[in-house]
Amino acid sequence: MSGGPGGAPTDAREPAPEDGDDATRDEHLPVDFEVFFTAHRASLLTRAVMLCGNRQDAEDAVQDAFLAALEHWGRISGYEQPDAWVSLVMRRKLWRALRLRLRAKRAALDVALPSQASPDETAQARRVLTAMAALPPRQRMVLVMYSLYAMTHQEIADELNIAASTARGNLRKGRENLRRMLGLGPDTDPLNEVPLVGTVGPLPGDGLAAALSATESWLGAALAEDGQARRQARADLAGLRREGTHRT
């Protein structure tokens, strides 16, 4: 499964480590978890914002996913790709939250500009993010999972508990709507089981894929430079961990 975590469960339910987690609880975050958190938080938050179109919702989902990993870190840390497990938890939390809403929130980015970004890059990224926030939640989720996670239609369908044909239809509609809002031309080639961005980079001539990839890079740089938010998130995780320890 190209979008599933290596070494972690990938069925339709919330992934959960086996019983018997041997993580040692104390008043601080484990050193290796601190390293993991610092290395992956910005990229996971970037994907979360693009998935849901709202920074606060993205922050909440990422924080919950990291907390789930922290609670079972003795086992999660042994996975081949623990960041993929956290990403899966984050996506499922966002999907459940979006399904409860009648309307998706508009983008609430509240991010500082990346220090190396040009005015044109910033303007384009904001156009893309604003347009993505206006998409129906399912179209946006499917579009990001296919385009940025390089997941197949069937993998998306399995994770969201929808039919593969529904995933394919939402991908096509999402691309059409986003292209229209960004003033790009229509798709000229049928959508096959080939990632539009993912690990292979934008396909030649696909302006929408290139725009998504550039926007992810812009947003990732902005969030990576937000040291204050990263420190606050780490402190919040430590506080939640202490609360959990005191309740047990």
UniProtKB/TrEMBL annotation:
Residues 11-25 have a biased composition (Basic and acidic residues). Keywords: DNA-binding, Sigma factor, Transcription, Transcription regulation. InterPro entries: RNA_pol_sigma-70-like, RNA_pol_sigma-70_dom, RNA_pol_sigma70_r2, RNA_pol_sigma70_r4_t2, RNA_pol_sigma_r2, RNA_pol_sigma_r3/r4-like, WH-like_DNA-bd_sf. Gene3D superfamilies: 1.10.1740.10, Winged helix-like DNA-binding domain superfamily/Winged helix DNA-binding domain (1.10.10.10). The keyword Transcription regulation applies. The keyword DNA-binding applies. Residues 1-25 are annotated as: Disordered. Pfam families: Sigma70_r2, Sigma70_r4_2. Residues 126-178 form the RNA polymerase sigma factor 70 region 4 type domain. Transmembrane segments: none annotated. It comes from the Bacteria. Residues 37-99 form the RNA polymerase sigma-70 region domain. Belongs to the sigma-70 factor family. ECF subfamily. This is Uncharacterized protein.
